[in-house]
Amino acid sequence: MANFFETLHQQRWDDHRLYHHSMINQSLHFFSCCTFMCCYVLLFIDPGMASLIAWTLAMASRQSGHFFFEPKGYDNVNQVTHEHKEDVKVGYNLFRKWVLMSIWAVSPLLLWWDPTLFGLVKPAHNWVELLRHVGDIWLIIGVGGVLFRVVQLFIIRDVQTGLVWGTKILTDPFHDFVMYHKAPLRLLRGEKYDHGLIVDEHTPDEPAASAFPDGSLQPESRPAAS
What we know:
Elements: H1 2-19, H2 23-42, H3 47-69, H4 82-88, H5 94-106, H6 109-113, H7 127-156, H8 159-180, H9 183-188
Helix pairs in contact: 1-8, 2-3, 2-8, 3-5, 3-7, 7-8
């Protein structure tokens, strides 16, 4: 169990220092985590609406930070290229995120094809019911996306890595709240990047602590997840 939490802590730290340099990205993550925590409560009351809000507000803002604001150049802090970081990403790297978000974007068309969603729901009679059905589809995609990657990690890494990553994803909103609650104010003060992670051009480069147990940032000799 101690090793489980140690691995969880390592995955969280690696995710922060490698993929959250931009203060805009961190601020969007703070907005996202607040929305997700509200949706966790709403999930027990109205799952469809909770999923609809989570995807349109929390997930969209969260991923836009990675897509549009996170630096894509050479990482002087960790001494690795952007391509290398994408290769060693435990969870969804940018390519996999684009695939997931594309599936999310086109999935409501299933209700146009079949208003009963292949017999799973009753046809919507108003916009509220339609939006709730869309939320139901997105809830399935969200749960399926997490389970798919967990099982994939079971195969390409090991069972613990998959379980740890799944735990990290489910608890990220609470961790991100603690981690990024100061980001919006720092952004308003004019900080563009987290200076605890970004090395100034006049400061000697110092590589950060290793992300991997073997003491390196080199990708393992396992095939990258598709």
